[in-house]
Amino acid sequence: MTKQKITVIPGDGIGPSIIESAVQILKKLECGFDFDYADAGLTAYEKTGELLPQQTLDLIEQNKVALKGPLTTPVGEGFTSINVTLRKKFALYANLRPVLSFKGTRARYENIDIITIRENTQGMYSGLGQTLSDDGATAEAKSQITREGAEAIVTFAYELAKKEGRKKVTAVHKANILKSTSGLFLKVAREVGARYPDIESTEMIVDNTCMQLVMNPEQFDVIVTTNLFGDIISDLCAGLVGGLGMAPGANIGTDCAIFEAVHGSAPDIAGKNLANPTSVILASVQMLEYLGMKDKADRLRNAVRDVIETGDRTTRDLGGSAGTTEFTQAVLERL
Ligand code: ATP
Ligand code: MG
User: Fold this and answer.
1) What is the pLDDT of residue 127?
2) Which SUPFAM superfamilies match (predicted)?
3) Among 5, 31, 150, 295, which residue's Cβ finds the most Cβ atoms within 10 Å?
């Protein structure tokens, strides 16, 4: 059998240190992977003058599975978000962002287990828009939703719910105001939901969802929503389980998948051995599940859970005083 190759993109800021942590752990788990390293983001720009070198794109295409650190897109005209580019280029239409409570974090809740499924290529992040007047005082952005796109993401959510024995899917929208785009999404969500009588289907307006998530988050199971709402709601969900350091994400298409942390490059703590690598370690758990390696995924999740629950060498964001490398060591010892 040929070895599964994983494209590893360390990325910017805290990226290289948390990705290194995840790779060490995957090696220890003896997953039999080959790792192909590739550059993207500012790191690549400084070396090659390109944010997304062709070589990196080729490797993602060839290996089909990538583990990626956060990438910084320089602010300013002419730079399209690298993450958005990757999602579009490889048609990674589903962004799967699970949050799960571990005891021992500083979170306000104990029993959170929510998966946000975010549409990843359409809506407000379609990248369409322009400045309308010469003085730059008027600008517009275009949000586009297609029936095909909505159907694909909602079906993805229900199939995942079915596979994982989840009870409820909540479609989050703003169809009362955004009648055309969010209206189409909701209409399709209702149609798809009707095909899954064994799963409870509910719908909720996005602003109310934010309040409900803060007041009574235990009512949520799987959330499916459009691009912008999903981005915001998944950060909110990360806050429910102890912050961005705890939140992984998978970008999944029909052919390729890229696993990453939900957070950005955290320049404020970069290079200081302060970052919590749990986000990318749990993204590796998602990757193992995607590759059908459920036993190893469970072992890894349990090891991280144990480190955090016992407060053994946890990072500062979790209330501990250890660094990225000590935390990683604590996880390695449990494997
Ligand atoms: P970007 O524009 O790249 O998304 P951002 O401004 O949204 O960046 P993040 O990088 O997502 O910022 O970080 C937000 C805050 O969360 C920062 O204070 C950062 O230090 C903290 N943070 C993010 N990731 C981690 C982590 N893995 N461990 C500890 N703290 C983190
Ligand atoms: Mg951010």
Assistant:
1) 78
2) Isocitrate/Isopropylmalate dehydrogenase-like
3) 150
Question: By alpha-carbon position, which residue is closest to atom 26 of ligand 1?
Answer: 245
The domain spans of the chain are 1-100+246-335, 113-240
113-240: same fold as 1-100+246-335? yes
* pLDDT tens digits along 193-237: 999 999 999 999 999 999 999 999 999 999 999 999 999 999 999
Closest CA to 4 of 66, 70, 53: 66
Asked if CATH classification 3.40.50.2000 holds for the domain at 113-240, the reply, yes or no, is no
Q: Which of 21, 79, 236, 263 to mutate to test the pocket of ligand 1 (most atoms within 8 A of CB)?
A: 263
Best residue among 244, 265, 276 to mutate for probing ligand 1's pocket (most ligand atoms within 8 Å of CB) is 244
Distance 60 CA to ligand 2 centre (A): 23
Q: What's the pTM value of the predicted model, to 2 decimals?
A: 0.95
The 3-state secondary structure of 128-149, one letter per residue: EEEECCCCCCCEEEEEECCHHH
ipTM over 0.90: yes
CATH fold of the domain at 1-100+246-335: Isopropylmalate Dehydrogenase (3.40.718)
Report the candidate in 5, 18, 43 with the shortest Cα–Cα distance to residue 269: 18
Closest-lying ligand 1 atom to the alpha carbon of residue 268: 20
